[in-house]
Amino acid sequence: MHVRRNGQWLSAAMGEEWAMMSVESGNYVTLSRVGARIWELIEQPVSVAAICARLSSEYDVPADVCRIEVDGFLGDLQAANAIVMEPAAG
């Protein structure tokens, strides 16, 4: 699966967290430091596997644990209409 941002979102650091708001819908999301890092990584469309590989190396987390956490987080972003998940071109 590939993930890409959906629409225009404004974001800003607020202490240890990030806040994001959709320009179009007014949806509001807060992100942890790791969530903000994932948001950075999906500035351009990218595979979920690539996100997990990068985070596993940056945060020294086992790949299987990382994938579970990333999938959950991306599900939350998808529910907020902040991202679109697409099958990888094959």
Show the helix and strand layout.
Blueprint: E1 2-5, E2 9-14, E3 17-22, E4 28-31, H1 33-41, E5 46-47, H2 48-59, H3 63-79, E6 83-86
Antiparallel strand pairs: 1-5, 1-6, 2-3, 3-4
Helix pairs in contact: 2-3
Which tags fit this structure?
alpha+beta; 3 helices
Walkthrough of the structure:
By secondary structure, the protein is α+β, with helices and mostly antiparallel strands. It has one domain: Outer Surface Protein A, domain 3 (Alpha-Beta Complex). Helix content is 42%, strand content 29%. It contains 3 helices and 6 strands; from the N terminus they run E-E-E-E-H-E-H-H-E. The protein has helices spanning 33-41, 48-59, 63-79, and strands at 2-5, 9-14, 17-22, 28-31, 46-47, 83-86. The protein has a 3-stranded antiparallel beta sheet with strand order 5-1-6. Strands 2-3-4 form a 3-stranded antiparallel beta sheet. The longest helix has 17 residues, at 63-79. The radius of gyration is 13 Å and the shape is globular. The N and C termini lie close together (11 Å). 14% of the residues are buried. The model has no long low-confidence stretch (mean pLDDT 92).
Q: Catalogue the unreliable spans.
A: none
Architecture per CATH nomenclature, i.e. the level-2 architecture: Alpha-Beta Complex
Q: What overall geometry do the principal axes of the alpha carbons give?
A: globular
CATH class: Alpha Beta
Which range does the strand content fall in? Answer: 25-35%
For the biggest sheet, the summary is:
3 strands, antiparallel
How many independent structural domains? 1
In angstroms, what is the radius of gyration? 13 Å
Helix content: 40-55%
Q: Which strand order do you get reading across the main beta sheet? A: 5-1-6
What fold name goes in the CATH topology slot? Answer: Outer Surface Protein A, domain 3
Instruction: Give the SSE string.
Output: EEEEHEHHE
Number of helices: 3
